Automatic annotation (TrEMBL), chains A, B:
Organism listed in the record: Marinovum algicola
A GO molecular function held by the record: transcription cis-regulatory region binding
Domain of life: Bacteria
Protein's recorded name: Transcriptional regulator, LacI family
Alphabetically ordered keywords of this record: DNA-binding, Repressor, Transcription, Transcription regulation
The HTH lacI-type domain, residue ranges: 16-70
Entry-linked InterPro entries: HTH_LacI, LacI/GalR-like_sensor, Lambda_DNA-bd_dom_sf, Peripla_BP_I
Length: 348, 348
DNA sequence: CTGAAAGCGCTAACAA
DNA sequence: TTGTTAGCGCTTTCAG
């Protein structure tokens, strides 16, 4: 007496299934499925009949059950390590928008500090994501191999891993560093310094390499380098104090990111009484919103974040649909943003 | 000749299932399931036998298939509208960490600008999320009702919706506004201004209300208010110009968030030649990282973001496990952070 | 403690 | 175009 008269809401907290809709509309289960499958062949009247029943019951297809059959979840895992650098909020903005526009959803994972990337990658794979983007410390061979075996496109974002058995999208950091060097050479200042981020960060390494190359090719040298423990304003302050306390104080400093640059400018003015840019030319990297603030007017190198995200999403959605062997690397050019943190050379 | 000799990797891009493991270990499918189900009763030797086979094959349980049975996805939808205010990166940091610590994952949705909240909520519900947090414009009755019917706990974060048929976690913005007013009253300045965000934002409304109350209770009045079109530095610059161009220029301004405050300070110094805080006292809200920068030293009101996230996650995980009727509102106190952007009253 | 069998909600052949 | 019938990969009674 119970089983047949049981309504859906009694059975399970009002979870309406396609079966309920089929019953309501007096059609088969597959008819309902077809109506909710884009591009399936259904007659017009079948469609309205089903839709009416569906609307009446408030039916929503269960995408998880669907995924089980289709082997497609429309989920993309995004693993991030840096939740302190504001550019990553912009990155997330672009990613969510671009992916949403293609019908994909973002499963966001945080691997900063204590979290283990290896473990998180494992977790995200359990959700059968269709693609994975990682912008975090070293991506282990195990992860890349796992993704490859399961045919899940994996792209390293804004990071350049040693091995290249995955897709890579990043800015041309070395070239950006060169541009910074070239620009600083025009300041007339000659005691070059580099305020780096953590020494393991690929961004620090490449930006520094490009910067040094430019300086050295001009017959000059980088006389001082400090590494901030992380890419934040606070860490920048400590680092700036060290840099400016050197016996031979640098007067033209390239900072591996804008937050460090802003810290350097503040410390220089506030604690060392320097007048900027007369006594110190500063160049940043990223072009965060506040780099344009009147307090800084920071001349900096901008990464094409939106384009980078676009490339990443392109790679993903293409490879999701048609898996193919091989990996691609897309390196995008940075552009200099001229403001007022670099000295004019004295008119000779 | 094909079906029986077919290995898993031939059948499907090496997607190892529990069945494969069972076969490998020479045990039943349910045995494998039990081994991967915390708290199921399995003998020790069964466990090692299954684990060996699983490790050998590189088996990872498919959580989606599991969800279909358990009616639990361990997914929490997070819908955000503001990807320009850096505090939301902090919020995401806390959310991902706190949820990950409880075995929950974040499905991140962006509803800024063009995106439709109603539509996104629908999409996220299709993934059978176990809970939903929304920090975005007005949450429609339809959404709340839908969540309620499906017994999905829904919490409005840092936002106070009109209707209260959902959980709410937010800072006590009105009280924060009062504190700001009280503090500004001590500056000796008497021409009070309010630099608001968008007039529809509940934060602007409540912070402004509290501020005005404090000023008026002291027998003073707020003589000027401007609304920035959004909570960004750039919008703040425009807004600051308007505010400072008033015939009767305010000299004690409460800004609805730090970015607006920083813009105001910059415009005041740079375009109006004011000396701060002598000519203008400024108070902010949020305490973003850069509020502490030497260029600003902004006295501000801090929202307890981490605690707010913690409360939200508490509500969610509690209600996920034991659904109960009724909604709770948790309003957390803000704290003032004293720095140097407010004038000392003249010694009388 | 273990295995067999019945689903979770849906899609995808296959016939009709 | 439609309905019937198998599953997708897993959990969960229910016997043994």
């Amino acid at each position: 007496m119970k089983e047949s008269t049981e309504t859906p809401s009694e059975r399970n907290a009002s979870r309406i299934t396609a079966m309920d809709v089929a019953r309501e509309a007096g059609v088969s289960l597959s008819a309902v499925s077809r109506v909710f499958t884009p591009g399936a062949s259904v007659s017009a009247k079948m469609r309205v009949r089903v839709m009416e029943a569906a609307d009446k019951l408030g039916y929503q297809p269960n995408v998880l059950a669907r995924s089980l059959m289709t082997q497609r979840t429309n989920l993309v895992g995004v693993i991030l390590a840096n939740f302190k650098n504001p550019i990553y909020l912009t990155v997330l903005d672009h990613f969510t928008r671009a992916l949403q526009a293609r019908g994909l959803r973002v499963l966001l994972l945080n691997v900063s500090d204590g979290q283990d990337l290896e473990e998180m990658a494992r977790l995200v794979l359990q959700y059968s994501v269709d693609g994975l983007v990682v912008s975090a410390g070293s991506i282990s061979p195990h992860i890349t191999e796992q993704c490859h075996k399961r045919r899940i496109p994996l792209v390293a974002f804004a990071r350049r891993p040693r091995r290249a058995n995955l897709h890579v999208v990043c800015a041309d950091n070395a070239a950006g560093g060169r541009v910074a060097g070239a620009r600083l050479l025009q300041s007339g200042h000659r005691r070059f310094g580099f305020m780096a981020g953590p020494s393991t960060a690929s961004t620090t390494i490449e930006r520094g390499k490009g910067f040094r190359a430019a300086i050295e090719e001009a017959g000059q040298g980088v006389i001082a380098t400090t590494h901030a423990r992380e890419y934040t304003y606070t860490a920048g302050v400590e680092s700036a104090r060290k840099l400016l306390s050197r016996a031979e104080r640098p007067d033209a400093v390239f900072c591996a990111n804008d937050l460090l640059a802003m810290a350097l400018m503040d410390v220089a003015r506030d604690e060392f009484g320097l007048t900027l840019p007369r006594d110190l030319s500063v160049m940043g990297f990223d072009d965060v919103d506040l780099a344009a603030a009147a307090s800084y007017r920071l001349t900096t190198i901008r990464q094409p974040l939106e384009a980078m995200v676009q490339e990443t999403v392109d790679i993903l959605s293409h490879r999701i649909n048609t898996w193919s062997e091989g990996w691609e690397t897309r390196q995008l050019a940075c552009t200099a943003v001229e403001r007022a943190s670099i000295a004019e050379p004295p008119p000779d």
